[in-house]
Amino acid sequence: MSDAWIVVAVVGTFTLVFKAAGPVFLGRRQLSARAQSVVDLIAPVMLVALVVTQTVGGNEEISVDARVPGVAAAGVAIWRGAPLVVAMAIAATVTALLRLVAQ
């Protein structure tokens, strides 16, 4: 087994143990209201972080291009109550049109 596979196995094992630690140690306990509110916000915050890094992240620099207005248009559409699929179509359309105009 090469060194790279040993590192992969060790990191995978630590990840599994780390993910299992919460349910094992806190499985029968009720979280406080404050802790529960923090846990409830983890998924939306991670999703926002992913969207931001994929929107403005470039190759080691911040890249502001046609994706930014596309994501902004989708955000406005969702804010106005549009379904997710419609918001995605709006984002794709705005981004494609801006790229077409910018050529």
Would you give an account of this structure?
There is one protein chain. With 103 residues, the chain is an all-alpha fold. The chain has two domains: 1-29; 30-102, no CATH class. Helices cover 78% and strands 0% of the residues. Helix 3 runs antiparallel to helix 4 (84-102). The chain is flat and about 55 Å long. The model has no long low-confidence stretch (mean pLDDT 90).
Topology diagram in text:
Blueprint: H1 3-26, H2 33-56, H3 67-79, H4 84-102
Short description:
The chain is mostly helical and 103 residues long.
Summary tags:
about 100 residues, mainly alpha, 2 domains
Query: Over the alpha carbons, how many angstroms does the gyration radius reach?
Result: 20 Å
First and last CA, distance? 50 Å
Structural class: mainly alpha
Number of domains: 2
Overall strand count: 0
Low-confidence stretches: none
Percent of residues in helices comes to: over 70%
Count the helices. How many? 4
* Average pLDDT metric: 90
Largest sheet: none
Which series of helices and strands comes N to C? HHHH
- What overall geometry do the principal axes of the alpha carbons give? flat
- Please report which band the strand proportion falls in: under 5%, 5-15%, 15-25%, 25-35%, 35-45% or over 45%: under 5%
